[in-house]
Amino acid sequence: xxxxxxxxxxxxxxxxxxxxxxxxxxxxxxxxxxxxxxxxxxxxxxxxxxxxxxxxxxxxxxxxxxxxxxxxxxxxxxxxxxxxxxxxxxxxxxxxxxxxxxxxxxxxxxxxxxxxxxxxxxxxxxxxxxxxxxxxxxxxxxxxxxxxxxxxxxxxxxxxxxxxxxxxxxxxxxxxxxxxxxxxxxxxxxxxxxxxxxxxxxxxxxxxxxxxxxxxxxxxxxxxxxxxxxxxxxxxxxxxxxxxxxxxxxxxxxxxxxxxxxxxxxxxxxxxxxxxxxxxxxxxxxxxxxxxxxxxxxxxxxxxxxxxxxxxxxxxxxxxxxxxxxxxxxxxxxxxxxxxxxxxxxxxxxxxxxxxxxxxxxxxxxxxxxxxxxxxxxxxxxxxxxxxxxxxxxxxxxxxxxxxxxxxxxxxxxxxxxxxxxxxxxxxxxxxxxxxxxxxxxxxxxxxxxxxxxxxxxxxxxxxxxxxxxxxxxxxxxxxxxxxxxxxxxxxxxxxxxxxxxxxxxxxxxxxxxxxxxxxxxxxxxxxxxxxxxxxxxxxxxxxx
Length: 545
What we know:
The chain is an alpha/beta fold.
């Protein structure tokens, strides 16, 4: 979850205000290679909105925007209903890309992938496969990514940019009046999404995405599929397993969501996740001579900076000078905990900021593109009932979170997700509930012990809900996206996806700590590149500089 995801959810640069029906075609451009309406499955009959088209997906060669790559890429679309309860009415085209198995003679089948968000592009995830996944997975699977409904090339949800900015300015209310203003701004923004995007804006819940994924499975002609989802992609996987247990060959859920949490439990676990992750960073600095804060208490440094920011006294020299807010500090702490590869730079930024050095300016610069595609709120506010009755209740939350997380105070991700959903106009179509999974094979679930976005407690709780089908592995380090953080976790995931052999329940993988500054976000071994920062936006990973 970012995740799409982030202190202020990622917004994508303007691509033009087009009629909604033309968006998918105009944005997908030359990558469109064919359109298929998914064939009915035994478990869920789909009425074809466009009779006469073939049931199988019509693939055609396409080029990766990254250039090159092992094997071949193909692209296509699949047509699905906007409202699955009314399949004969409005439809949209889901964009797909696949990287063909590099060893066709040993091909196992299709591996569907999703990078999270909400708002991450599965098409781009598939395009990144040659550098992001192990050679063994690339050899044995067609890696298939799809842009979920309302995302990127799949008819993106479009919202008014001025109203996005108005909401962003109000996400940290400090009075009953500003809370009321936030609620009004949220409703205005949600109504603009509906006005500009049509009925799709009201059908962005994960339950609808699950139905879409089953349509893709049917269009692939696969009796069962394998799946790898990370962050928000785990929510899709969990709920797919619940609805279509017999359609799963293998499923890995990396950095898990917990869809059972109410507003307070969500805030509490998110805040503790950031606090504990920052604590690991501080402890690492204490024992790492090359950390810029070595010899100092990194917790006390952050607390001092926060106090100065609260007083309006944390100013970075420049033309003009820039005042750093408490929210800037919290967002930087969250973002830099996603991947410890960022810690050397983050420590230097905190040291520069404490000393008033101009070099810290870029890291905290608040820059905005021209927001137009904005699916994040439409998904989260239809998946979670985050209603807070009054500013008094919100302020009580904030006080309690400060006691639980005395250094970082709260999770800016959790806090802004909750606040952005107050008085959102769309129905909560897929509200919180416990998972009820029965009849799948083993599902491999992994979580970092210190994950700032999807806390370890989320994964452990989701695994308990799934029950005997779940095999839960813990990576004892810090970060988000275990596949690229831990060689041990990556080996377990690869082995399971290829052979269906799971590690023992309760397996732990050792922490991997950064040993030296690096500009590249590579896994600790194996030379694989972590694609999540690029796919989910730089804000999520604290790389505004």
